[in-house]
Amino acid sequence: MKGFLAAVMMLTRLPLWRVVTIDKRYFADVLMYWPLVGYLTGGVTALTLWGASLVMPWFPACVLAVAVRLLLTGAMHEDGLADFLDGFGGGTSKEKILAIMKDSHIGSYGTIGLIVYFLLYVSFLYSLDMPVAWALVVSADIFSKFCTSFMINTLPYARTEEESKTKVVYRRNTLFAHIPIVILVFLPFLAVKDYWFLGALVLPVMTSLCLRMYMKKKIGGYTGDCCGASFLITELACYLGIVIIYCR
C-alpha cells in the first residue's frame, strides 16, 4: 500500500504528505505501481471530459480535460518532455544531453515539441465520441505508464543518485512482480466492448522499444525527464492507434 501511495505522491500533486509519511525506500520501488496511478490520472481526465461534455461543446470539453490533468500532475510529465526534446535535440554527446536536460530553461525544441504534443493530444480526444472516449482515455493513460515502467525497469539510471532531482533511483522489479499489474492494465479495455481497439496497443509497445534503444544508445540509460517524456510519447502513440481504428 505504501508503495502505491509513494507512486501517487511522485506522479501527482495530491498533498498526501500532509496525512501520511512515506519512507524513502518505498519511492525506489514505485515502478510497478505507475500503471495503477493511471487509474487516478486517467479517471479524473475521463470524468472531467464526460462532465464538461454535458454543459459545453466537445472541443472545449477536451481542452478542459487536458487542463485538469495538468493541474493534477503538476505538468511534471510535460516538463520532462520539454527537457527531453531540448536535451536530445540539442546535445551531441551524453554529457551535453544530460547538462541540457538539467537546465531549467526551455529551448526551441522543447517549446515546439510541447505545442505539437498538445495539438495532437486535444485533436485525438476530439476525434472520439463520448460513448467510447472515457474508457479509452483511462486505458491509454494506464497502458502508457505500464510501457514506461516496464521500459525503465530494464534500463540503468544515466546519472548518479546524488544528481537525481528526487534523490531516488528506481529499483528493478522481477518479471513475476509485474504479473498482477498486467491484469489490471488490460481491465479498462473490457469497458470498450470493441476488442479491435486492442490492436492500438501495438504502436505504444513499438514506440516504447524504440525509445529504450534510443536512450540506451545516447545516454546509456534513463533520467527522470526521460520517464516523463516516455509517458506522453507512448500515450500519443496509443491514441494514434485508437484514432486510426476508430475512424475505420
In short:
The protein is 69% helix and 0% strand.
Protein architecture, described:
It is globular, with a radius of gyration of 17 Å. It is an all-alpha fold and 248 residues long. The protein contains 11 helices and no strands. Helix content is 69%, strand content 0%. The chain has helices spanning 2-11, 24-27, 34-53, 58-73, 76-90, 94-102, 108-126, 130-152, 175-186, 202-219, 224-247.
Protein topology:
Layout: H1 2-11, H2 24-27, H3 34-53, H4 58-73, H5 76-90, H6 94-102, H7 108-126, H8 130-152, H9 175-186, H10 202-219, H11 224-247
Helix pairs in contact: 3-4, 3-8, 4-7, 5-6, 5-7, 5-11, 7-11, 8-10, 8-11, 10-11
Termini separation: 42 Å
Mean pLDDT: 86
If helices are DSSP runs of H or I spanning 4 or more residues, what is the number of helices? 11
- Which word captures the global form? globular
Identify low-pLDDT runs: none
Relative helix content: 55-70%
Structural class computed from helices and strand pairing? mainly alpha
Q: What series of H and E elements makes up the topology?
A: HHHHHHHHHHH
Strand composition percent: under 5%
Main sheet specs: none
Return Rg in Å: 17 Å
Strand element count: 0
